[in-house]
Specification:
194 residues; alpha+beta; Muramoyl-pentapeptide Carboxypeptidase, domain 2; eight-stranded mixed β-sheet; 8 strands
């Protein structure tokens, strides 16, 4: 093989630089045009794992779980999260969609916290939703809670306004601000806020 000539060495360095430039440019363009969940998927592939902590205010249960590692979602952790997100009135369960968990993970990172998300309402069965609707509690007739796509939260030590601003900034779904009952609603439906 021998020692490369200066001209050949320079050509190899330029090729590597071009290759690196093309890769960086591609990711830069993706960052502009891809919506948050897609960009998050690209960016988070570089992270070794994603974990979340929860405290269900109605059942008193706590959970800290690594729900994603080595490029995939972990079924056992998803089952544990489904349990803590269950409808506390009926005991019915539905797994939260993974995009919702990824949204909460992004909120956690933006807040820079390891504190648990306090769950006020995770999954809501159709029966519970109809009951709350009848009581005039301001729930939507076709609430995303019934599909595992929404959760009402607060985070100890953080103002609701901070959580709201972070969630709105992520542009990953709906964000509702409820200062009187003391929670922020986040969902992975259409991007909107109220």
């Amino acid at each position: 093989m021998g020692i490369p000539t200066p001209r050949k060495f320079e050509a190899e360095c330029l090729k590597l630089n071009r290759r690196g430039f093309i890769k960086l440019s591609t990711f830069g363009v993706l960052g502009i045009f891809l919506p948050f969940p897609c960009l998050g998927a690209v960016r988070d592939r570089l992270k070794p794992e994603r974990s979340l902590s929860f405290y269900n205010i109605h059942t008193g249960e706590s959970l800290k779980a690594v729900y994603w590692a080595q490029g995939d979602y972990l079924v056992e952790a998803l089952v544990e999260i489904e349990h803590i997100f269950r409808d506390h009135r009926t005991g019915e369960r539905k797994p939260p969609v993974t995009r919702l968990l990824d949204l909460l993970f992004a909120v956690k990172l933006k807040l820079g916290t390891t504190r648990p998300f306090n769950i006020i309402s995770g999954y809501r069965s159709p029966k519970t939703n109809a009951f709350l609707l009848k009581l005039g509690r301001g729930v939507a007739p076709n609430s995303l809670h019934m599909y595992g796509k929404a959760v009402d939260i607060r985070v100890p030590g953080f103002q609701l306004t901070s959580i709201r601003q972070v969630a709105i900034g992520l542009r990953a779904g709906g964000v509702g601000y409820y200062p009187r009952p003391d929670f922020v609603h986040v969902d992975v439906g259409p991007v909107r806020h109220w």
